[in-house]
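STRUCTURE REQUEST FORM
Protein name: Small redox-active disulfide protein 2
Source organism: Desulfoscipio geothermicus DSM 3669
Requested output: structure tokens
Priority: standard
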Amino acid sequence: MGPGCPKCHTLEKTVREVLAETGIVAEVKKITGIKEIAAHGIMLTPGLIINGKIKSTGKVLSKSEVQKYIEQERK
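Status: completed
Returned output:
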């Protein structure tokens, strides 16, 4: 989630790369509307939500961090 800043684009790219590299099939939604972002409880962008759970706000995650969060939600 994010309005389209460079950090938001980087996080989206990282998420898509992790999914491709691990072969995990998942729907990725990019939410850019400030009101919708805030409605999800994200106050700092970029934000990452997986299965309705906030995993990160306000920072660009590494591939290993993204993979860890995805794996947590697959259990």
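Reviewer notes: The beta strands are 47-50, 53-57. The chain is about 45% helix and 10% strand.
Form closed.
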